[in-house]
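3.2 Worked example (two chains)
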Amino acid sequence: MTFQTLDDLDDGQQVLVRFDLNSPVEDGEVQDNRRFGRHATTLSELIDRDFAVAVMAHQGRPGDDDFLSLSQHAEILSDHVDHDVDFVADTFGDEALDAIDDLAGGDVLVLENTRMADGELPEEEPEVKAETEFVQTLAPEFDAYVNDAYSAAHRSHASLVGFPLVMDAYAGRVMETEYEANTAIAEKEFDGQVTMAMGGTKATDVIGVIDHIGDKIDDFLLGGIAGQLFLRAEGYPIGYDVGDMDLYTSQWEENHEIIEEILEERGDQITVATDVAYAEDGERVEADVEDVEEKGLGVMDVGTDTAEHYADVVRDSDAVFVKGALGVFEDEKFSTGTVSVLRAIAETDCFSVVGGGDTSRAITMYGMSEDSFDHVSIAGGAYIRALTGDELAGVEALKR
């Protein structure tokens, strides 16, 4: 391990912990999600080990509708750990400092949204963030800093990169497990085939991953927007905008040259759909890509034959990584590709990591258990950064 973890931290101290509790908001109500459950594992351990805990986290961005106080987050977190979790509507002012002074072993306090605090934003070098009043005021109040917010670790904000420069810093359990799983492609050795299923709406992400870890992967199974653009590059009339949308054109203009280079250099590693699914009169309709004649077909999923082939590839693999959905799985009619791959992974004794924001939602949405996978990442942007080889500011600060 390249940084200190909770195993290196003596019990019973006063610790400042950074979680990522950023959550969907509906009608002003913060929605419970897997991030609370994951961070609750770290928090429960800290409580059991008699730490006095102050929690930092963020919600939304200034100016957005979901930019809210963390009062609701404290209540949700309390439910997850079955323990009192207090809240103070202040981050590093007198009210927050008084509440921190009152902490005893086993107590938990959630501080106000870090993005409401002067000095948290914008992204700047760690050395700059370490000198902010935010960091300089809070750091002396604690014995140690714990960063558990892997999913926010690509941000160079004060609460993520400033504190490790001025105090003892450790990785929480979420940070530790996410880092190990998401660097496994580069660092772990596998005996058999290594497969990656990739989709989603951002072709640039897919291309960046292929470019960075192409030497580590035997077969890329493509779907989503990127899969359609690769089909377009092979000469099929697929991956074109319908009506006034601009989902494909701008991404094609930005990426078509590198897509063509990848197909030329790594064509034997790239697997694209042989059939696709689209909506007609509200129903799922499928067509072989060889039979598609009209540009602008609104493809919603890979076809059944493709889904079955992808599932067979997964079953023959020693390790499988998933980034992004192969289709619009939120609509059950177009979930075939995504769900077929996930179910094949769940039924197979392979090492598996599933990530890419919403993709992990398909696991519980379609009756699967997260226990059937080695790791289900709660990270979006940080997961992509790890796969494309970009440094994560929060992780680098812990290593320092």
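3.2.1 Second chain
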Amino acid sequence: MIKELMIERLRKIEDLEQRQLLKDIVSGVFVNLIDYQEEMNKRLEERVFNEIEDVENRFDIYVTLSSKEDIDPIHQYLFPMRPVDLESKTIQINKLLQSLERNEQAVLYTLFLACDSVQIQQLLTEERLFNGTLVTTEGPIEIQVSLTRNMDYLQEINKLYPIFQVNGLPWKTINHPFAYKFFNVNLEKCPPLNEEAEITDIIVDLQEYEPKKRLNMVPLWNIERHEVKNIGFPVPAIDKVNYEHVLSIRKMGSEHGYLVEADEENVRYIKRTDNELTVVSPQDKSGVWKLLKIVNMEEEKIGKLHYELVSNRRIEHFMSKFARKHSANVKTKGEIIRMVNTFEAANRFELVDVEIVDSFLEASFTYCANPFITEMLGENSYKKIMLLKFKAKVEKDFIANDILSFLVSEVQRHFFEFKCVGVWQ
């Protein structure tokens, strides 16, 4: 800024000899001085910025979706949410018959629907039956199937919440729009089946949802499972009651985030250094500890993805880090806008208004992404409604409502006295 001002002033000197003389003086002395001052200001800014330690960014969760055949089994950054998804599966007729006899869901397979949340909810509400065919070694068999939401991936997300609590880390809503779009295909009606026959193929017609159907899809995230042994023997903790178990993370990489996956009664607290985790536990014997490694993403090295990579990562601003360290619930519209805009996922939306109303009878575009938290605090039926009105900056795709739900759920975590609802403006 100062250099531009000096150049502009030099241009206004009409005497060319004086302009050249002054230009030589400025270029030789003042420009270097200005560059030095700007560099020192930049270093001071970085020093102030880094004074507030932000361990949260080591625990950012990234997610995407991939077809089973496109998954790289040695990928450094992205891993299946459920490793069992990579195993080949066969359907046995006798197990289907046993499930039908016990009035249990006879699941044929799981599919993904590339629909927005409103279409997903409509499909679940209708409880429709679809026609299909079991192709067996004894010929085709006409069947009817139903679709119910597959909860396997949502349960994996739910499991993370108590793990964060055990590890003494703050919870941040998981932004996983794909996990809500998986369905189980359940056998509902079929003629008598021969247990000796084998199923070679299953064909189901989802009618108007057929173009949105995707088979053999696997959700991925940047969480890798490990098992680590103690370094040496446990030593008595300072309280003379519990024991310290030291786990080395040097070889796995100290730049990543690590969570100890254990029951609450087995962990008192966890101490963290750059290369070690110290688990203070009542266990007095060495053993193997389960770790969740949250990989620090380098997006330029991820490679080509067929579906968008989304996360719950916050943009690193000084004010955001300062607000998290000195948490004070400032209940203003400006604070809510700041809270939403700290997330990278908000770059496609704009929060244009916040309104408190007694009731809201229209259909909401959002759902609660933290049901395990809201259930603990009771129902929302008696609370006033906080309407969060958003405007899309780009054309909305089939996961736009889900990302909106993530942002609204984050606001809900800080404003439990209201029921937060997101709508499009």
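3.3 Remarks
The longest strand covers residues 139-149.
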